[in-house]
């Protein structure tokens, strides 16, 4: 019991934001679709912003969570692309590049390519370079 309390405190240490957003981010990070769905459906239309959770899901390659969040209004595709590129999450990058919901601008693609190159994410960098060449 003490361990659980200490773990919860450690997770929240330094976090001063909205607890709903924090819960969304944690569910997106782990790909916990049941928790993600429950949190999103418990909010009204003006509920928590889905973009931080969308970006977090992309950073951890949780494509199913990304699709769920986009269907409910998440739209920070540029931020998600950079985060996925930094962590070499090729599945997430492919989803973002192939998504019909958003058309990436060339400067966003170049920014993500630079992020991938700086993080030694070679597979993602190669994918982004070839995608830029075929535009």
Q: What attributes does this structure have?
A:
single chain; 135 residues; mainly alpha; 9 helices; elongated; disordered N terminus
Would you count the extended β strands for me?
0
Largest sheet at a glance?
none
Mean pLDDT: 88
How widely separated are the two ends? 56 Å
Q: List low-confidence stretches.
A: 1-9
Which percent range fits the helix content? over 70%
Verbal overview:
By secondary structure, this protein is mostly helical. It has nine helices and no strands. The longest helix is centred in the C-terminal third of the chain and has 13 residues, at 106-118.
Can you give me a brief rundown of this structure?
The protein is mostly helical and about 140 residues long. It has nine helices and no strands. Helices cover about 70% and strands about 0% of the residues.
SSE inventory with pairings:
Layout: H1 2-12, H2 19-30, H3 33-42, H4 51-59, H5 63-71, H6 77-86, H7 90-98, H8 106-118, H9 122-133
Helix pairs in contact: 2-3, 2-4, 4-5, 4-6, 6-7, 6-8, 7-9, 8-9
